[in-house]
Specification:
With 344 residues, the chain is an alpha+beta fold. 54% of the residues lie in helices and 18% in strands. It folds into two domains: 55-236; 240-344, Translation Initiation Factor IF3. The strands form two sheets. A five-stranded mixed β-sheet has the order 5-6-7-9-8, with helices on both faces. It has a four-stranded mixed β-sheet with strand order 1-2-4-3.
Length: 344
């Protein structure tokens, strides 16, 4: 018995059986039409299915990023947080929406969503330091300079961390400059000089100078020189930088709990020696790691430096370094002081 013959019997049944069979017949007819015209139906429905799958993928990625970044990627200078949103596009790029506090990451759709999450972190990280970082350094080098930011967020999910490792390893294998910069970032980040000195200096300079006013080659060279200095701080006798945009000295105070007041004068002499070589020295960073650092002692040392050099404290922080001379999770301290300009 075929479908038309079955339909002839439907009116012969009493209610509500007749209504039930009528609906069932409609479903059978719909199924029959789909089978007869499957290519047409699949052609019509495929765009809807693709859009639905991409919408679900975008929601999954954005929710994962929200969880990994604890509701937003933090801007090192201001402490503000940017929400990261995804827009499927043919080419990669990032749009910064300051009013909405959002970073829109444009990237091609991919089925492997953990890979998408890792790549979104890598693409977004430079824009936390400055909207101009990629414009000045180029996209690839900007990502290398901020790779530690991406790792910090990805470390909360092993699958995303693995995908980020794959991405970074692929880039380091094919690009020697990228590899060298990533290695310097990792070394500077062990004692957190990367996040406490490098990122603030780079971000603040790009904030103070419009990207069009910077001599890009000069600033790029000075930024990489600062990164090398911080990555190799223990090996440099006089760690200072005297450039066109970055003029600073790093004072290594040793273990503060062992430093008595009458031993602080050499630190002042060290700073004055650098000032004699670098007219217009602007910044002093006092760093210490390795012992029990008491806030009171650190404050007294900084006050002494202020009195003797005329510098003004703008920031001080006690924190835990990831690694210091082979030891994990070591107490550390950094203070940032600004010197008055010559004749000021």
């Amino acid at each position: 018995m075929n479908l038309p013959e079955i339909l002839e019997y439907v009116p012969r049944f009493p209610e509500p059986i007749e209504t039930f069979l009528a609906y069932l017949s409609l479903l059978l007819i719909f199924g029959w039409l789909i089978r007869r015209n499957w290519k047409v139906w699949s052609w019509l429905l495929r765009p809807l299915a693709v859009r639905w799958r991409r919408w679900l993928g975008r929601r999954y990625v954005e929710n994962a990023l929200k969880s990994l970044t604890k509701d937003g990627m933090e801007v090192p200078l201001s402490g503000e947080r940017y929400k990261v949103k995804i827009r499927w596009a043919e080419s990669e790029g990032v749009d910064v929406l300051l009013d909405e506090g959002a970073l829109i990451v444009n990237m091609p759709y991919a089925e492997e969503l953990e890979h998408v999450i890792a790549r979104a972190l890598l693409l977004a990280s430079p824009y936390l330091v400055s909207p101009y970082l990629a414009a000045v350094f180029g996209e690839k080098l900007a990502r290398a300079l901020t790779v530690s930011i991406a790792y910090r967020h990805a470390s909360r999910d092993l699958r995303v961390l693995t995908r980020l490792d794959d991405l970074v390893n692929g880039l380091t294998a094919s690009d020697a400059e990228f590899r060298d910069v990533v290695e310097l970032v990792k070394r500077a980040d062990q004692v957190s000089y990367y996040s406490h000195i490098f990122l603030p200096e780079i971000g603040r300079t790009l904030q103070d100078f419009a990207a069009t006013e910077l001599d890009r080659e000069t600033f790029r060279r000075e930024a990489l020189e600062l990164l090398r200095l911080l990555a190799n701080l223990d090996e440099i006798d006089v760690p200072y930088l005297c450039g066109s945009y970055l003029r600073l000295v790093v004072v290594r105070a040793g273990r503060l709990e062992k430093v008595m007041l009458d031993m602080w004068e050499p630190y002042v002499g060290f700073v004055e020696g650098v000032r004699a070589k670098c007219r217009g020295l602007w910044k002093i960073y006092v760093v210490s790691a390795g012992g029990v650092i008491r806030g009171k002692v650190a404050h007294e040392l900084v006050s002494f430096m202020e009195e003797k050099t005329g510098a003004k404290l703008v920031r001080a922080e006690l924190y835990t370094a990831l690694m210091f001379r082979g030891r994990p999770r070591v107490p550390a301290y950094v203070a940032e002081l600004v010197l008055a300009p010559p004749g000021g």
